[in-house]
Amino acid sequence: MQDEKIKGFNVLELIVVVVLIGVISAIGYPNFSEWRKDRETRSAVLSIKSLIEGINSQVQRGQYAFVQVHILEEVNGAERNLIVTSKGMKPEKLASLLNDGTSDWWAKIGDRCNITDDAYWDDDPDQGADNVEVRQITYDNMATSWEGDDGAICFSKNEKWYSGAGKLQSSLPEEGDVARSVDNTLFICRRTNDRSSCDVDSDGTPASEHDHLYVIEWSRFGNVILEKWDTRNSDWVKQ
Predict the structure, then answer these.
(1) Closest to 212 measured CA to CA, from 188, 234, 236
(2) pLDDT at residue number 225
(3) Which residues are CB-neighbours of 55 under 8 A, at least 6 positions away?
(4) Which pTM was predicted?
(5) Which residues pair with 75 in a beta bridge?
(6) Where are the domains of the chain?
(7) Which of 16, 105, 184, 196 reaches 20 to 30 Å from 165, CA-CA?
(8) In 55-210, where do the E strands start and end?
(9) Are 150 and 186 in contact (CB under 8 A)?
């Protein structure tokens, strides 16, 4: 009888422990899940930042004279991908463009940061380039502030040919014509069933409650910084 009581007590104790573990797990899982999501987002953003810094280092070393970072938000039916690609132009090709007396390539910001001509760049992963100087990374769970479109930023060693194209080039009216300015921010957030793009207004502030939101900023000289949106204090925090 004494053995049976001890066994009964042990079973009861086990049930209590199992219940406690279940309660603790239920409380802790949401925090762990959010931590995991933010870690995945941060890892993706750091990889994109590294890609921008990497292609800039190649232009500073003289491997390329002109480089591009192209960001494509690709929509293929129900599938969406964020594709970030670095591309390079050799010094010889840039020299030929500059020395072409019939071309006004140098005067057109959008044209020189070309996103339409497949043969424009000497090394382009989209065209099969597999050398280590250029890269392409694809994410199926990350988004930016636009959908189904693309943009690009271009750098040169002396910053003279700094330019943008597509969603990373802004148009400003100037004396009846159009002046082009280059955007210097890329917002990255986690894509979910409820959020297909980063909801950010024109001054860089989230227009709705936003977790796991980052921004990569760059200068015409290729300096790159990373910030994360602090929802508690409603401010950007440098990482």
Answers:
(1) 188
(2) 96
(3) 64, 67, 68, 69, 86, 87, 88, 133, 134, 135, 155
(4) 0.82
(5) 80
(6) 62-238
(7) 196
(8) 66-76, 79-89, 136-139, 142-143, 150-156, 163-166, 169-174, 177-182, 185-190
(9) no
The secondary structure of 93-109 as a DSSP string is HHHHHHT-TT--GGG-H
Tens-place pLDDT, residues 216-229: 999 999 999 999 99
DSSP state of 208: S
Residue 144 pLDDT level (bands cut at 50, 70, 90): very high
> How far from each other are the two terminal CA atoms of the chain, in whole angstroms?
65
Q: Identify the bridge partners of residue 79 per DSSP, sorted by sequence position.
A: 76
Work out the average pLDDT over 9-27.
63
CB 37 within 8 A of CB 190: yes
Segment 87-108 mean pLDDT = 86
Residue 151 CB neighbours (<10 A): 22
**Could you tell me the two tokens for 196?**
């297909």
CB atoms within 10 A of CB 219: 12
From the list 131, 52, 121, the residue with the least C-alpha distance to 87 is 121
Q: In this predicted structure, what is the pLDDT of residue 62? A: 93
CB 136 within 8 A of CB 84: yes
Q: Which amino acid belongs to residue 141?
A: N
Q: How far is CA 229 from CA 83, 194, 226, 234, in A?
A: 23, 19, 10, 7
Question: What CA–CA distance (Å, rounded) separates 59 from 67?
Answer: 7
